[in-house]
Each structure stands twice: as C-alpha cells, then as structure tokens.
Write a structure and sequence with these properties.
alpha+beta, five-stranded antiparallel β-sheet, 6 helices, 13 strands, 19% helix, 31% strand, globular
C-alpha cells in the first residue's frame, strides 16, 4: 500500500490518497447452485496462488449466498463461472481489512452470445502515456441483428493513479472517449442458437485495458494491484437497469461477457458484511 500511495500519488493531498488508495485482486472460479438458489459448492482458480486472507474470506462468505433469475424464478441447478473482486485497505501500520467488493456470474456458452469478429483496440491517449497513467474502461455495447454496434456507453472507468479529483475525472473522460470511438467500429457475429438467438439485440460488456507497453507490469494472478474505482452508469437499454445485479469491474480484461445477468445474487457482499 505504501508503494502504491507514494508511487502514484505524487504531490496529492494526504486525505485524497487516504480516500482512494486501495489494493485490488480479481479472483476467478466457478460456483454450483441448487434448485433453490443455494450454493452447493464452489472452486477458486489456482488457490495456492491466493493469499490466505482471500481464501478464508471466500470460505466464510460464498456458502452464505443465494441466487435467483432476473425474473425471480429458481435459478438451478446450474454451474456458473464467477469472478470476484477483493479489495484491501490499510487500517493501521501493519493491518489491512479485506472485503469482497464485487461479483460477476456468467455461463460459459460463447456460441449463445455475440462473438467478436476482431475488436480493434483504441489508441492510447498520448498525454496519458507520457504521464504514465493507466486504467481500464468497462464498455457496454448494444449489438444489432447484423452484428453492428448500435449504441455504446462507458459504464465505468477505473484508474491506477491517484491525483486530485478533477485530474482523475479528466483521465476517465479521456480514456472513455477513445474507447467509445473504437467500439463504434467493432463487429460481432450474432448467436445462432440458445435462448437468446431470437432477441432483437444483445448487450455485451468488454473491459478495455490501457497499459503502457514496456512500462506497465501486469500483476500476476494472486497479486494485489493499485485500484481507484470510478462512478458507474447503467446502459439505459440494459435489462439490468435499476437492478445493478452484477459488478461492472469484477471481470478480467481480455474477454467479452454478456451484460445482462442470468444469475442475481440476493445477498451481495456489500449487504453481507464482507
């Protein structure tokens, strides 16, 4: 945490650093849910790579979770892929508090959702690259029946740099702008089978990561990294609008994910004391 604060903060006021400085870790795995929506079991990927505080917290909290489908019906039995965001915040000289801050659940059925025909990455803003600013934009795109992007928003922009509030907002706007410009030209292959094949449109979530080649060191699985979350907005066309069922930033970069949830967690971490 000290390295994160000193390396990224610069001449920022201490209270700004204190408010924003958190460490983050994305943990992936799978979860089994029974016919009543209760957890039958779960598996974390590469548990030997994870800190003990993370695996112990998961063992306490995950078995307590219950699920339903968005329409309120029983979800199971089923197996779902899951991605969890753990956050660590320093509370004193030698102690941290760890919590599960975000969850996302999705079935591994890529042929039942739009698939990429090649997503051209956005250009890296020159001024951000020169300043060593990195981050990630969570883009949500509405895909029409021909595989074209008919609408798109930047749902959330997270940074790995701490500066004054106005400065961080400028970086978020800058990253969002170039990500959306690139997303307008993305093309997808519509699904030919599955329960959503006949939908009038599909929503996908794509984490677009900005890292400086040769300078940004990507953390290994099970390692903490700096984390400054941005505000969230919900796509107005989303079937999740108003539910906030999934955490936007609990998804690994490099993938394309369905934006409309098939599992709704009834007791998410921020309500369960995690």
């Amino acid at each position: 945490m000290l390295l994160f604060a000193s390396a990224l903060a610069g001449a920022v006021e201490p209270e700004v650093v204190e408010r924003h400085a958190e460490l983050s870790m994305l943990v992936t795995g799978s979860i089994d849910v029974d016919a009543d929506g209760r957890v039958k079991g779960y598996v974390l990927d590469k548990p030997d790579k994870l800190p003990l505080a993370v695996t112990e917290l998961a063992a306490r909290k995950i078995p307590e979770w219950t699920f339903k489908r968005p329409d309120g019906t029983s979800p199971g039995p089923l197996r779902s892929m899951m991605s969890l965001r753990f956050l660590a915040r320093k509370v004193d000289a030698s102690n941290y508090v760890v919590r599960i801050a975000g969850t996302s659940f999705f079935r591994h059925a890529p042929d039942e959702y739009p698939m990429s025909k090649g997503l051209k990455p956005p250009r890296y803003p020159r001024v951000a690259a020169m300043g060593g600013v990195t981050g990630i934009v969570y883009v949500v795109a509405r895909i029409d029946r021909k595989g074209r992007v008919e609408d798109v928003i930047a749902e959330q922009v997270n940074l790995r740099v701490i500066t004054h509030e106005a400065g961080m907002n400028e970086w978020r706007v800058m990253f969002a702008k170039v990500a959306l410009e690139a997303a307008e030209d993305w093309r997808f292959i519509p699904p030919a089978k599955g329960p959503h094949a006949g939908d009038p449109y599909w929503s996908v979530r794509v984490p677009v990561e900005f890292m400086i080649r040769g300078k940004t060191v990507r953390p290994q699985y099970g390692e903490w990294e700096g984390y400054v979350a941005g505000p969230r907005q919900v796509a107005p066309w989303s079937r999740d609008a108003g539910k906030q069922a999934a955490s936007v930033d609990a998804l690994p970069a490099g993938g394309i994910y369905p934006a409309d949830p098939e599992l709704v967690l009834l007791n998410p971490p921020d309500q369960s004391g995690a």
